[in-house]
Amino acid sequence: MELQRKWHVGLLMVVAFLALSACAEDTADTKKQNTAEQQTEMEHSSMNHASSGEVPTTLKNADNPMYPVGSTAVIINGHMEGMKGAEATIVGAYDTTAYMISYEPTTGGKRVENHKWVIHEELLNPGSEPLTSGTEVKTDASHMEGMVNATVRIDEALQTTVYMIDYVSTTNGDVVTNHKWVTEDELTKNE
Predict the structure, then answer these.
(1) Domain that holds residue 180
(2) Does the residue 24 lie in any domain?
(3) How many domains does the chain have?
(4) Per residue in 134-157, is it b (16+ CB within 10 Å) or e — as a string?
(5) How many other β-carbons are positioned within 10 Å of the β-carbon of residue 53?
(6) pLDDT grade, residue 165 (50/70/90)?
């Protein structure tokens, strides 16, 4: 009987250890995800949230965008602190290829990884066809410090409608005008 009781206690200890290990691993994964999101926000801290509203002359207006100019939508996936959950007013809607890129800033500093988004028309001599992952090309986009004339690596290409938006930051109340760019997948209908 004593041996059986010790065996039960030992088994309970093993089960408890495994359960706690699983919880710790889940917490570690959550911390990693939160750290990655904070890192993205920090990397985008030098981003020009607002712009003059000028767009490349070759950029074509979207024929039938999900979110027409003048309508509103909610940002469900923001690139910077204060975007997620903000109401966006659509200033422009354009059909193009949007690229997630990585690059070394021309002004020095840490390499920027997975920046969202630069569009096809902001690349220097890209040709008419969308570029594939791994392609290197220069850009004249000025969304972030050190981006103009930087050699960028294409990490992902997405054929989509991109939007230029106005919004009010959910964290500090700043009004951001003509922010470039958010994709259709990063917005949702305003309920």
Answers:
(1) 60-189
(2) no
(3) 1
(4) ebebbbebebbbbbbebebbbbeb
(5) 13
(6) very high
Can the peptide bond before residue 117 be classed as cis, meaning omega within 30 degrees of 0? yes
pLDDT in tens, 62-90: 999 999 999 999 999 888 889 999 999 99
- Number of residues written out for the chain: 191
CB 151 within 8 A of CB 103: yes
Q: What angle do CA 112, 114, 115 make, to 5 degrees?
A: 70
The predicted model scores a pTM of 0.74
Burial, 22: exposed, middle or buried (Cβ in 10 Å; 0-12, 13-18, 19+)?
Answer: exposed
pLDDT digits (tens, 9 = 90+) for 148-163: 999 999 999 999 999 9
The encoded tokens of residue 71 equal 């309508």
Domain CATH code at residue 87: 2.30.30.1210
Could you give the count of Cα atoms lying within 13 Å of 14 in the half-sphere of its Cβ? 6
Half-sphere exposure of 49 (CA within 13 A, CB side): 16
Residues with Cβ < 8 Å from 144, sequence gap 6 or more?
Answer: 44, 46, 47, 48, 105, 112, 115
